[in-house]
Amino acid sequence: MNPSEHLAALQVVVPFLAAPLIVLLQARRLAWAATTLTSLLAFAIAIALTHGVLNGQDHQYFMGSWPAPYGIELRVDGFSAVLLLAITGASSAALLAGYHSLDQQIEPKRQPLFFAAWILALAGLTGIVVSADAFNIFVFMEISSLASYVLVAGGPDRRALPAVLKYLIFGTIGATFYLIGVGLIYMMTGTLNLADMELRIPEVADQSPVLVAAGFITVGLALKAALFPLHIWLPNAYTFSPHVVTVFLAACATKVSLYVLLRFDFFVFQQNITGHKLQFTVFFMSLAVFAILIASAVALFEKNLKRMLAWSSVAQIGYIMLGASIVSLAGLTASVLHVFNHAIAKGSLFLAVACLAMSFRGLRLGNIAGSAKAMPWTMGALVLSGLSLIGVPGTAGFISKWYLISAVFELGGGIAIFLTAVIVIGSLMAVVYIWRIVEHAYFRPPETDAVVREAPLGILTVTWIVALANLYFGINPELPVALSESAASALMGHIR
Amino acid sequence: MELLGYYNYWVFAIVLMVGFYAVIVRNNLIKKLLGLAIFQSAVFLMYITMDKVEGGTAPIIQEGVTDQIYSNPLPQVLILTAIVVGVSTTALGLAIVVRIKEAYGTIEEDDIIAKDRES
Q1: A165–B97: do the CB atoms touch at under 8 Å?
Q2: Choosing among B85, B99, B106, B117, which should be mutated to test the A contact, i.e. which has the most A CBs within 10 A?
Q3: How near does any CA of chain A get to the CA of B113, in Å?
Q4: Burial A418-452 (b: 16+ CB within 10 A, else e)
Q5: Domain boundaries in chain A?
Q6: CATH number of residue B6's parent domain
């Protein structure tokens, strides 16, 4: 038996097997070590799978060796590889940072259970990405969601509880809509395997159950992806969850739903519903424009640091959707690239916030005034990743915005100018809200005389590694660009 | 009456909307979660309905019987999984409501929002 043949299955199985073992570990440090090791192992598996994809071979795996339409198929292509790297990388970085940060926020005796929920969330998210079976995706989606509700509810602030209940209600409605859609398609095609569905659906194309299914699946997944205007569960859930949970979820959770949405749409609906391409473009492009403009504007006036960055996440989902809504090779490349780059930028921003939270009780802008003097390293990382979020040349954020603008220009005419203006205005608003953080941290006197110390070395190191990744992928973007191009051509390959 | 022939699907749609309405309108968090449970149950009904083949029986192969029509067993298997998911969602939701009651002393959404404004 060659283990490299089973990598796609191991990606999900390893964290799943680790979860019950972690519950049994009573000592919190041991539980932390086991969780982090599992997460790093999952990261290593993701890297190995990515390596295979870069060599031009998609990884295909049949659970229990049952052939495709009957058994469950796992499949890893460029798009899945990008998300696998983002999920496992974010989880590993957040856990390493959590060594210091979590003790502040979670009681020691609850920590082993918290870590078990974490590893289940990791297993669920990776499961969604590797699975090629519509119903399996639903099950993994619910596993990851249930586990992440537990993670968010772990926050010490009582406002985390209503926030998580809202998250639970919206998440469940989204997943149930998806389930209805999958049921309707199963009714029409008799299959749950996405590739098989694509072969069978032309016979029943344009019949009303397929149309209804398209509606339910699109709205349900958009709800889970926090696409404007279905985002209202997101800001509070991100604000009140433990800081490292925010790092983990902000980097990948909503993007996984976008991944399913794009996959489903390009595999199943694009070819088989009359006028779908136009509807897809008009619907998502307008929502994306609203997301960029409105969410960025809200972030401008937000005083709580975490909520400001959460609103910025809603805007970034807009950029990702804007690229996808163009339905072209360049647009999809930009979109997948932004998934990757935004995961790094937002991950390191929230890590820097977790560093700040080691010394400050409140995370309002006023609370952190004057923090740069006492915490130069933390603020340095925050500024660097802020530049990447804005899209300054030399950082990862610039690469994806550049691809996005070139994709928009391919459209030509007034719409290209309008969309470019939207992207530029969105980026300018990002300059303003990042500047507000910088202004408070560097140019305002501290609010109190309390002695502020730099964050512990461990958490700082992790933050800087991720922050420097922003620079690295800004200067050497070959890896994410190659993956995104292969993802985009795979998706476009379904449009004949 | 072709419309009435689909009465199972009508029941599905009505139950779905009853649950959805409760989620949106109710102020009491437990009632909201019950609405959510009803909403999910409606989908179970849809899956169970679609596997039924007219005149079909339980899909068990018997010796000597060759012309039997069987109902499709797969949706039932699928929905068994979804029922488990639904139960765990409701359980988790109720557990969170218990903690909300401990932290806020109320489970009315308006009161919780008002208390958050004060603090």
Answers
A1: yes
A2: B85
A3: 9
A4: ebeebbeebbebbeebbebbeebbeeeeebeeeeb
A5: 1-273, 275-496
A6: 1.10.287.3510
Q: Residue A361: what residue type?
A: R
Q: Which residues on chain B are in Cβ contact (under 8 Å) with A185?
A: none
- pLDDT number for residue A171: 93
What kind and span of H or E run contains A49?
helix A28-54
Distance from CA of A233 to the nearest CA of B (A): 14
Q: How do residues B93-108 score in pLDDT, each as one tens digit? A: 999 999 999 988 888 8
CA distances from A320 to A182, A188, A413, A470, B109 (A): 24, 31, 22, 18, 34
Closest Cα partner for A97 from A347, A341, A453, A343? A347
Q: How far is CA A200 from CA A69, A191, A214, in A?
A: 11, 8, 16
R_g (Cα) of chain A, nearest Å: 22
Helix, strand, coil percentages, rounded to 5, for chain B: 70, 5, 25
Q: Residue A75: in which H helix or E strand, if any?
A: strand A73-76
Q: Which residues pair with B70 in a beta bridge?
A: B57
Determine the Cα–Cα distance for residues A213 and B58; give it in Å rounded to an integer: 28
Q: How far apart are CA A85 and CA B91, in angstroms?
A: 32
Q: What is the DSSP letter of A455?
A: P
Torsion angle in degrees (nearest 10) through CA of A192, A198, A203, A205: 100
DSSP A266: I
Q: What is the ipTM of this complex?
A: 0.93
Contact B85 A139 (CB under 8 A): yes
d(CA A184, CA A192): 11
Whether A376 contacts A459, CB under 8 Å: no
The number of beta carbons lying within 10 Å of the beta carbon of residue A295 is: 26
**For position A310, what pLDDT does the model report?**
92
Residue A288: which of A239, A330, A226, A224 has the closest Cα?
A226
Q: Between vectors from CA A30 to CA A29 and to CA A34, what angle results, nearest 5°? A: 120
- Cis omega (within 30 of 0) on the bond before A229? yes
Task: Spell out, as residue ranges, where chain A has pLDDT lower than 50.
Answer: none
User: How far are the Cα atoms of A60, A119, A199, A494, B100 from residue A73, in angstroms, in the given order?
Assistant: 7, 23, 16, 18, 41
Which chain A residue has its CA at the smallest distance from B77's CA?
A: A135
Domain range for residue B42?
2-53+70-118
Question: What is the interface size between A and B, counted as CB pairs within 8 Å?
Answer: 71
Angle at the Cα of A468 (from A433 to A357), degrees rounded to 5? 55
- What the block records as the tokens of A120 is 């289940």
Q: Is A165 in Cβ contact with B93 (below 8 Å)? A: yes
- Contact list, A162 vs chain B (CB under 8 Å): 100, 109, 112-113, 116
Chain A residues touching B16 at Cβ < 8 A: 180
Number of domains chain B is built from: 1
pLDDT tens digits, one per residue of B4-62: 778 888 899 999 999 999 999 988 999 999 999 999 999 999 998 888 877 778 888 77
pLDDT band, very low/low/confident/very high, at B1 (cuts 50, 70, 90): low
Question: Do the domain assignments include residue B62?
Answer: no
